[in-house]
Specification:
The chain contains 12 helices and 10 strands. The chain is α/β, with parallel strands linked by helices. Strands 7-6-5-4-3-2-1-8-9-10 form a 10-stranded mixed β-sheet, covered by helices on one side. About 0% of the residues have low confidence.
Length: about 350
């Protein structure tokens, strides 16, 4: 594996970016608010970090409770500049999803969702668009056999592709496909790119499984060499402009910074991103462990928490320990993604080291 060394040009650019992030941490601006609207799901995916099932142990959050949060933050933000992302579980299991979206739209908040597409019929898609849907991500984890294996449903691939085609036909929708790269789909990423291009997709986001929930299964993990090959694949897609591929916000990537994303790495948890979870917990990202939640909407004011209680996200010096303590990339990485920290704050996966 090649040495993961930064060029002088990359270091100069990363130094500027690091200063920008430091300034952002001093004056955070809420730009994305996730609402974990349900823990129910119509699938049982092998890589699910939330370990969701068709019947959840926790009831869906009543929309009126989340709407109180929205109304409480409206005086403090420009609604047009705060994207509300409805997540789950699977948002489409909520029968009131269109009503929820319409109330957000009426208040001036653009809203989007992440879906597996299984319940996305043409009628449902049109009703969501009429309710103000402006952003959509559909998950596709390979061709039929491997996608259905990952998702545990024989109809999943067909319905996901149908949902993708519906979204691609809608010019007023910000849309991308997200793919979980794993040992089964890794060998044919080029063929998958050809397929996605053939149906008209422009933006493709790829990520790898991090060890949480059912995602701890070793069968889902690619090797370090495959991880580097994935980075090279994304670079090639971007350079040839075949499709606008990008890697997720998983972690700092050393010499691949500036080459596999539209921006340099940063964990925006608590800087521009917050979330309200199904049980009312106030957090930064829906993937972050409960150990790092900062309050609950049923007893705390969301905006007061955002303004004054997100210090663990904004000052990450506490993460400079263990393998991060003497790491020469600390000033650029700041300890990696918060979702990769365990209950003791220890880093569970370092992307930079995988590329060394």
């Amino acid at each position: 594996m090649s040495q993961n060394k930064l060029t002088i040009k990359q270091r100069l650019a990363l130094n500027l970016w690091s200063q920008y992030i430091s300034n952002q941490a001093k004056i955070p601006e809420l730009k994305q608010l996730f609402w974990e609207s349900t823990l129910r799901c119509n699938l049982s995916c092998r890589h699910c970090g939330s370990d969701c099932h068709s019947t959840a142990g926790l009831k869906d959050m009543p929309f009126v409770d989340f709407l109180k949060v929205i109304d409480s933050i409206t005086p403090h933000v420009n609604p047009n500049k705060v994207l509300i992302i409805i997540s789950g579980g699977e948002p489409l299991v909520r029968k009131d999803l269109e009503q929820c979206g319409l109330e957000l739209y009426r208040r001036g908040f653009p809203w989007g969702m992440v879906s597996n597409g299984l319940f996305m019929t043409p009628a449902r898609f049109n009703s969501l668009m009429d309710s103000g849907l402006r952003s959509l991500t559909i998950s596709l984890d390979g061709f039929e056999e491997d996608h259905n294996w990952m998702r545990g449903n024989s109809k999943s691939f067909t319905m996901a592709v149908n949902a993708i085609k519906m979204a691609l036909a809608e010019p007023n929708l910000a849309f991308d496909v997200v793919t979980c790269v794993n040992p089964r789909n890794f060998p044919y990423l080029d063929k998958m790119a050809d397929f996605l291009v053939s149906i008209g997709l422009k933006r493709w986001r790829l990520f790898t499984v991090f060890p949480s929930g059912r995602g701890k299964d070793p069968e889902l993990q690619i090797t370090d060499q495959q991880f580097q090959d994935l980075m090279d694949f994304i670079v090639r897609m971007r350079e040839t402009k075949k499709i606008h591929a990008s890697y997720g916000c998983e972690g700092f990537l050393g010499a691949y910074e500036g080459r596999v994303r539209d921006h340099f790495y940063t964990c925006q948890a608590g800087l521009s991103v917050a979330s309200v979870l199904c049980d009312g917990s106030i957090s930064a990202c829906t993937s972050i462990r409960s150990d790092f939640h900062q309050g609950n909407i049923y007893k705390d004011d969301f905006w007061e928490v955002w303004e004054n209680k997100f210090e663990p996200y904004r000052n990450r010096e506490w993460m400079r320990k263990d393998e991060c303590a003497e790491c020469k990339m600390w000033k650029y990485c700041k300890g990696g993604g918060m979702h990769l920290r365990d209950e003791d704050g220890k880093l569970t996966l370092c992307h930079y080291k995988r590329l060394e």
